Amino acid sequence: MQLNDILEYLSKDGNIMLNMHDVTGILSSKPFDIERKFRIHTLKFCDIAKSTSAGYMLCTSCKKTVCKMALRCGKPFFGTCPYGLFELVFPIKIDEKIECILFVGNQTDNAKNA
After folding, report:
1. Of 2, 36, 75, 107, which alpha carbon lies 20 to 30 A from 22's?
2. What's the pTM value of the predicted model, to 2 decimals?
């Protein structure tokens, strides 16, 4: 089973969003190659939030900060994005080196509205 298949299976009900941030380029090589939809936040909610330049800057600056935190601490953590979506941030290590960061998001009081 490829990584893409696992991500597809875990997100098939639409209640969570899985997104991976590539740190080393590993997500471009088999068996780690994943579809574009798992490399970006593709929720309608996020697209609307990023539809203005200010909204886009807020979202991307938050993600950059969170990625730096993940690289620095090397351990999973969670929090709420500036738009209120809860996300788990999980650095993935291979041979003690962080290769990518898994974001598990879209956790709200009412995920169907997100």
Report:
1. 107
2. 0.84
Cα 7 to Cα 20: distance, rounded to the nearest angstrom = 10
Tokens of 102: 């898994």
**SS3 string of the chain?**
CCHHHHHHHHCCCCCCEEEEEECCCHHHCCCCCCCHHHCCCCCHHHHHHCCCHHHHHHHHHHHHHHHHHHHHHCCCEEEECCCCCEEEEEEEEECCEEEEEEEEEEECCCHHHC
Give tens-digit pLDDT for 18-62: 889 999 999 888 878 888 888 887 677 788 888 999 999 998 899
How wide is the angle at C-alpha 89 spanned by C-alphas 36 and 71, nearest 5°? 95
